[in-house]
From TrEMBL:
GO terms for cellular component: cytosol. Keywords: Monooxygenase, Oxidoreductase. The lineage of its organism: Bacteria, Bacillati, Actinomycetota, Actinomycetes, Kitasatosporales. This is LLM class flavin-dependent oxidoreductase. Residues 1-316 form the Luciferase-like domain. It comes from Streptomyces chumphonensis. One of its GO terms (molecular function) is monooxygenase activity. SUPFAM superfamilies: Bacterial luciferase-like.
């Protein structure tokens, strides 16, 4: 297993001013670099406390690039439907140059109706815009005199500058929430996979990984070269009861934030998002203890979290990468820093040798 951190702010001005949140997050980036973690990531969302402090992950990652030399920098994920492919390809290529070739480019479809409304993009077009956007960006990264004649964008001939440092281009990840077909398509296209185990059962996720890995191999790619990233909220403290107290508090605030963000699904229906109208009720039934019992959170004293990670490896394989959600903004910087230090010093080194490959 590899380990990194992912930032998904679920705070607004009433909770914590944005400059304070970003100052704390960037100090945690410094700590992740110092402690040898694999990556840092930032999400893209708008308007709500659910991710709204990060409308542009590339801006944050550029700041992170300027204060680090080793850790990889990931979008988690950026949304092609909301940007012109020339603009997004250029921003990511520029970040790859600034960082010396450390970008992992994850793309997602988005799922909040209010975001689509604000951008004037029909939500039913999300998948087609996603597929076209990713294809156009990869072409811009790898070809000169690019001509694109798509459904949503037409341009060229153009040659993107700067060119990405990584060749043929930065690793491309597809972020998927629930769709088995999206996993299959990612495997066929040779894209790496990024997902959140919290949104499906263990059995459902195992089946999606089986499909993804099978399609990756069937496309002629070497099995085992695919990269799979999972994100888990994570709170580690010397005392397990204290960790659960903090984890319960953080989970409650995160659940309240997503409940507000998905409220418009109560009056929205889309064939591109079957069943998403159930999100409103699902968030009301979301409880910390249920998530703990189902292995959806990494919360506890170091020895407890070691056991949780070994169970995750048994379920999904020991070749996955774990992105730790250590700072949504509701707990203190000191609590998040303690989580990182305990993970680096007392959890990861004491995992089974087949699990603890590196941070």
């Amino acid at each position: 297993m590899r380990f990194g951190i992912v930032f998904f702010p679920t705070v607004g001005p009433a909770d914590k001013p944005a400059p304070d949140y970003f100052d704390e997050a960037l100090r945690l980036v410094d700590l992740a670099e110092e402690l040898g973690f694999d990556h840092v990531k930032m999400v893209e969302h708008y308007f709500f406390s659910y991710g709204g402090y990060s409308p542009d992950p590339v801006t944050f990652l550029a700041a992170a690039a300027g204060r680090t030399r080793r850790v990889r920098l990931g979008t988690s994920a950026t949304i092609p439907a909301f940007q012109h492919p020339v603009k997004l390809a250029g921003k990511l290529a520029m970040l790859d140059a600034i960082s010396g070739g450390r970008v992992d480019a994850a793309f997602g479809r988005a799922f909040l109706p209010d975001e689509f409304t604000a951008f004037g993009v029909p939500i039913d077009e999300s998948k087609d815009r996603f597929v076209e956007g990713v294809a156009a960006i990869k072409q811009l990264w790898t070809e000169e005199d690019t001509v694109w004649e798509g459904t949503f964008h037409r341009f060229g001939p153009v040659t993107l500058l700067p060119r990405p440092v990584q060749r043929p281009h930065p690793p491309v990840f597809v972020t998927t929430a629930r769709s088995a077909e999206s996993c299959a398509e990612a495997g066929r296209a040779g894209h790496h996979l990024q997902t959140v185990p919290n949104v499906m059962s263990t059995e459902e996720l195992q089946e999606r990984l089986r499909i993804y890995r099978a399609e990756w191999a069937a496309s002629g790619r070497e099995p085992g070269t695919e990269r799979i990233h999972f994100s888990y909220p994570c709170v580690v403290a010397p005392d397990g009861d204290r960790a659960r107290e903090l984890g319960r508090r953080d989970d409650a605030r995160n659940t309240a934030a997503i409940s507000d963000a998905v409220a418009s699904w109560g009056s929205t229906r889309s064939s591109a998002y079957p069943g998403y109208e159930k999100l409103v009720e699902a968030t009301k039934r979301s409880h910390f203890e249920d998530k703990m019992a189902a292995g959806k959170l990494l919360v506890g004293a170091p020895e407890q979290v070691r056991g949780q990670l070994e169970q995750i490896a048994a379920w999904f394989g020991d070749d996955i990468t774990i992105s730790l959600g250590v700072h949504s903004g509701h707990l203190s910087f000191e609590d998040a820093a303690t989580t990182l230090r305990l993970m680096a010093e007392q959890v990861i080194p004491k995992l089974g040798s087949e699990v603890a490959e590196q941070r």
